Amino acid sequence: MPRAQARVDLAAIEANVAGLRGRLTGDAALCAVVKADGYGHGAVPAARAALAGGASWLAVATAAEAEDLRGAGLDTRILVMGALCATELERAIGARADVAAWHPRFVESVAGRAPIHVKLDTGMGRLGTRDPDVADATVTAAGDGLAGLWTHFATADERDDRFFDEQLGRFRAWALPHRERRPGLKLHAANSAATLRDPAAHFDMVRCGVAIYGLDPFGVDPAAHGLRPALELRSYVAELKACEPGESAGYGRRFIASQRTCVATVPIGYGDGWRRALTNNGDVLIRGRRFPLAGTVSMDNLTVDVGPRPDVRRGDEVVLIGGALRAEEVARRIGTINYEVTTGLTARVPRVHHRDGEPPGEA
Ligand SMILES: *Cc1c(COP(=O)(O)O)cnc(C)c1O
């Protein structure tokens, strides 16, 4: 039993993509977002599974991420969504990626060497230009190199929010007249939440990240959207000891037994991305039952109160994410989002890819 392991079901990613694709309006394409090592799932295997499920584009945040995909032999269109400094732009071009632009000067430095997606900032307040005239000038500068027009929503995951519709309106007003003149242009705006929330946001392509991994973009329940979580985080019971009243576990004695109990030590900690904020604040599954974390989560280990007469044994598997214990629950406990839970798993945790429990073969 390895000390900690993330098991990633590629069949789930494939099924999630196929399911999302089935909901798209018209013949909108699905671009699978595999930035940050596929939200912690492994970018290359996740990309292959997404393509098998019907994705036809990939998106990443950085030039280096595009290089990694090309290096693995993937030859799909890849959009680098992030800002690029001069050397990063050269690397993105070298990786035959599409790039984002929102100023004519940047388009000049691309000099026809990469397809360009002009970004209007309709309210995200991050990348892109807020000024439709600057966006138009960027479109003109791109000339035949123009491949797409795009934007990004700030509040697609907030159910009753009206700002989403404002952003959608601004994007339509700017982008649709351009596409009337150039029918081949790809318009894209929707992330996972927008894709699930409003077919009017699908345009020619959607950019889905979190949902393809079976995580709920609304942070509640992936099953409500027909999504299957792809990642399970597992470790094992490395040590098991009786704890008399007054005895403690972990740094700072933040768990002190009030009655006789047993404490299991599980060799995974914040060095693996299992956050210290989960101290005395979370459950794990052992033999299918929930037990509470007891004491400080340290860098390499955590401790679990398994009760006075446990049937738990040394060597038993411990599930930290999986089954009834979803990444959404872990996120809620520490005031973050499911994205950060899986993306935060560190390189020390081996990713083991499988398909429905079987070796993945040549996916
Ligand atoms: C990360 C990202 C996405 C994907 O968002 P999800 O919520 O994971 O679907 C789409 N577009 C942009 C610009 C992004 O940065």
Automatic annotation (TrEMBL):
Residues with N6-(pyridoxal phosphate)lysine modification: 35
Entry's family note: Belongs to the alanine racemase family.
Pathway per the UniProt entry: Amino-acid biosynthesis; D-alanine biosynthesis; D-alanine from L-alanine: step 1/1
EC number from the UniProt entry: 5.1.1.1
Function: Catalyzes the interconversion of L-alanine and D-alanine. May also act on other amino acids.
Domain Alanine racemase C-terminal: residue ranges: 230-354
Binding site for substrate: 126, 299
Active site: residue positions: 35 (proton acceptor), 251 (proton acceptor)
Cofactor(s) required, per the database record: pyridoxal 5'-phosphate
First-tier enzyme category under EC: isomerase
Any one annotated GO CC term: cytosol
Official protein name in the record: Alanine racemase
Highest taxon above the source species: Bacteria
GO MF term set: alanine racemase activity; pyridoxal phosphate binding
Annotated CDD domains: PLPDE_III_AR (cd00430)
Catalysis: reaction(s): L-alanine = D-alanine
Keywords: Isomerase, Pyridoxal phosphate
GO terms for biological process, alphabetical: D-alanine biosynthetic process; peptidoglycan biosynthetic process
